[in-house]
Write a structure and sequence with these properties.
alpha/beta; 10 helices; globular; two-stranded antiparallel ribbon; about 270 residues; Rossmann fold
């Protein structure tokens, strides 16, 4: 009888090739996310998205059309024992050779009342960049998917008063030579959930020690509202999700009141 991880890998090659591996590979090709001789830190948070991303990277490595290296990086920001154990168990179950390093991020944000999740995310990313660079990597890969992208677009408009998106790749301004990539850019969350459910996998939702250890933990309230809004709109018009995604590809600067250039300088439509 084959090992559990072998059945998962076979499923990615057969049952989920169209829904998971194909959009994963499409994003890599379309946005040029991987180049020859890259060394990529595949950042794993303990959730379903990054775990799947790790398995898809392993599958991609099997094809290996050009040389690149992978490091499966897990940062422990102060997990509870249950969270840490769950991450390690899933890594063994899925045959992912993780490299774990520790930080004290949760302790640093414990007393923060305003936007602790935002600060935590910023700090986590900084530590991931630093550790990845220390290990000789030139890229970090995060598991944000298609639904994260369209939700972020709407959240920026509704709650932030701005039009922006989550880019598929981004050069670091603080860590020279480092780049962030999002190879799950075209993968749908419903397909990730279907994959998780088929194999009976249990992942962390929020790994923060102030929420529960497993998938019943708290989620961002604003994001949940946006998820529900998109779901409602989609019931009326199936093109809604695609239209949101495409909206940031079809911006006509001549028709907006103002915009900021790459240096943060603001320009108005009526400036001379």
């Amino acid at each position: 009888m084959s090992e559990f991880f072998e059945r998962v890998e076979e499923g990615l090659r057969k049952n989920y090739a169209r829904r998971l591996f194909k959009p994963f590979a499409k994003a890599i090709v379309e946005y040029g996310l991987i180049k020859p001789n890259d060394k990529i830190a595949v950042c794993m948070s303990g959730g379903k998205d990054s775990a799947l991303m790790a398995k898809l990277f392993q599958e991609l490595k099997r094809h290996n059309k050009f040389p690149f290296e992978l490091v499966f990086l897990v940062m422990d920001p102060g997990y509870s024992p249950a969270n840490r154990q769950k991450i390690e168990e899933n890594a063994r179950l899925l045959n992912i050779p993780v490299t774990i390093f520790e930080t004290d991020i949760f302790e640093n944000v414990f007393e923060i009342e305003k936007s602790p999740c935002y600060l935590c995310a910023r700090m986590r990313r900084g530590h991931l960049y630093a550790k990845a660079k220390e290990l000789g990597c030139n890229k970090i890969a995060l598991g944000h998917h298609y639904d994260d992208v369209i939700e972020t677009i709407l959240m920026g408009m509704l709650y932030g008063g701005q039009v922006q998106t989550m880019l598929p790749k981004l050069k670091s301004t603080n860590f020279e030579g480092m780049e962030l990539i999002r190879p799950m850019y075209f993968v749908r969350e419903k397909d990730i959930i279907a994959w998780r459910e088929e194999y009976g996998l249990e992942f962390l939702r929020c790994a923060c020690k102030f929420t529960s250890a497993l998938a019943g933990g708290e989620v961002d309230g604003k994001r949940q509202k946006v998820k529900e809004l998109i779901r409602t709109l989609k019931a009326e018009d199936p093109q809604i999700e695609q239209n949101i995604f495409k909206s940031v590809e079809n911006v006509t600067l001549a028709t907006v009141i103002a915009y900021k250039d790459k240096d943060g300088i603001r320009h108005r439509f009526d400036e001379e």
